[in-house]
Amino acid sequence: MSPAAHEVVIGARRLAIVGVGLMGGSLAAALRGARFVDRIVGVDEDPRSLGTAHAHGLIDDMQDLEAAVAEADLVVLATPLGALPGLLARLSRCLPARAVVTDMGSAKQPVAEVARALGLTRFVPGHPMAGGECSGPAAARADLFAGRSVILTPTETTDDEAVRAVQTMWTAAGARVVMADAATHDRLVAYTSHLPHLLAFACAELLAEYAPAEALAPFTGAGLKDFLRIAGSDPVMWRDICAANAASLAPALAAYAERLAGYSERVACGDFEGLLGHFAKARAFRADLMRRSTHGEH
Amino acid sequence: MSPAAHEVVIGARRLAIVGVGLMGGSLAAALRGARFVDRIVGVDEDPRSLGTAHAHGLIDDMQDLEAAVAEADLVVLATPLGALPGLLARLSRCLPARAVVTDMGSAKQPVAEVARALGLTRFVPGHPMAGGECSGPAAARADLFAGRSVILTPTETTDDEAVRAVQTMWTAAGARVVMADAATHDRLVAYTSHLPHLLAFACAELLAEYAPAEALAPFTGAGLKDFLRIAGSDPVMWRDICAANAASLAPALAAYAERLAGYSERVACGDFEGLLGHFAKARAFRADLMRRSTHGEH
User: Which Pfam families does the annotation name (chains A, B) (predicted)?
Assistant: First the structure.
């Protein structure tokens, strides 16, 4: 019998984190708190982020990518999605044979394909279902991933030992690891994450066109605030996610538009009992989903 | 010079609250805390709500509508929208001449029209922009309305003294009173509240049709949780709101569908820079709106 995931000894005690923002910084804090790592090296284009991460004790040292990777057992790419293809190309030229690499990108098929094309068999595509409104290493929290799911999407060419190493790392950070194939991941997050972001952006933009903020403000309640929270997300990051997952996002948008047209039709023809049926079904499913998810009601 | 609103002596010390749920109970708690009332009588079809409200010290006594109103200076209708026409009709037959009436309904034109048709000139249509996920008098909080806006939509036939009395009451409860005409109110809340609720219900229903909750749960993050929170609202209440404000909701839905079709078009043709422009505009407006609203970021 193989040992349980958390018992696998991987010797991955030297960690390189590329992108020391909220996500990378929080992973550093969690792994340090769990005594999973001996040494963490930070890599970031922004020297201020590196300085903050170092001042907060998240990283021991800062180096450029090539130097950081040369000494690392485990490399975590915690950058925005758009930076991943370039980073993977650089890693394919400098990664030591022993090192394992994973990422945190919100769409998995394009990243997995780039890694496969580059022959990076020890790259394990990953996506933690966690985040926050704030960004930057000063917002990092050791419990950001506690109880949250992390999706790993290895391909048939991904090294099994590498998968176990990444699984062990996330378990040490307190996350629940879920395995999926990249296509399934991308289809499901198109519905659970990418579509809702577009819906929130579209609603905020519609409000912008409809009336000035000072006119709408007195008519704004806590419900709208929560609904629009994700429209506060970084536009560049979401441009890149939409580009990376357009193939799954397009049918999700079409299905939503059809559903909404059904609601409009019922409003237009005064079929409010029909609307009630939709609302009741929606509410029941939401309650069930929240009960089952790690971000439940309580 | 007329005295400031909060200085107006209205002699409204005997309050009847019809519907002692979260909203009515919270108003009772706030007004009692502010020593605005001497005596609060609760009216509710549900004897358990009355019992809980009494046990929590929110109401001094419980009576039927006619008895409660006979002794009241101020009557607050804190029931769902659907119950208001029937209650107003009953009030038109039993309301003492001195008593002032207001409501908390989410759509104002239909209620205002019913009151005008009944000759209830001392009825002041109102809508507090506050609420909560929980319902019932046990969830009542004295600060539910603190800093929140309350929209009042008197018509040309509404008695001025009645308007001042309701204004004074809400100010005592800690709310910020905003005057608007009913048509403007209904158009604006169609965009800021009713449309977002329908969008969230439609998203939750789409998820229900797409995959089982157990399959989606690992792919569910905090963003979706916030986005779907309002899809946890009471379906019957929202059926009634849609019915009451269909005239304003229909064009808001149409405008949203058009906006979303623009997003879909950009996704389909790969115009991600165009999407970025939409997202940036949406994000900036959201930040401005939240800064100006009483439910701001901080």
Answer: PDH_C, PDH_N
